[in-house]
# Entry
Amino acid sequence: MVPRGRPHARRIDVLKISRRLFFYLLAAGGIGTVLFFATPLLQRERGGEIYCPEEPPLVYGREECPVCLMVVDYPPSSAAMRARIRGVERWYFFDDVGCLATWHKEVLRQGGEVLEICVRDRVDGKWIRGDKAVYLITTEFTAMGTGIIPAAPGNVERYKKGEVVGPWRVRSVGGVEEYGPPKPAGEVRAVVDYKCVFERFSYGPAWSTPPDWYRGC
# Structure
């Protein structure tokens, strides 16, 4: 976090490092090397910080999803939301992005306020901001069968190649654990933004996922 009283200190340091690093990498490996190493930096500078400022206090195996009422115990499709409803602020946890989208609508319906959304990047397990993530519509297993997979924009191609970075650090009822995520598996049918998911997705009868719900995004 940026220290108070020095609001530009972190950004100035990053720019100095990136300029020096740019010319070093250019000499060492050409423009392809520069772009490969610069992608995470560009995500921060051009699109704003993509990572959640703090890790959501999710304890796997203990928290219950407010939508489907299942215990949240599968990290690859888990998500979290901090919201205020009728003056009460708290975290909500979800076993599937489909449940997150459903609860997002419910909070607004009750006149509440969504304060923060965090989703796990399917490739490296980092918590990223819901509005900065992209959402892959896939045939991969998720806890509620929606196949909606979040990722940082720079990790979409890595997902398509079946890459995964692990282990992930997760908190469970047994304490902090090292979780070995399964490799991404499934066809990528579309890549959409957060508005598409939060505004258009809704479950069908018996928790089914309507086919082609994302068309037109």
About this structure: Helices lie at 9-47, 97-109, 156-160, 194-200. Strands lie at 79-85, 88-94, 113-120, 127-129, 134-138, 148-151, 168-172, 175-179, 188-192. Residues 9-47 form the longest helix (39 residues).
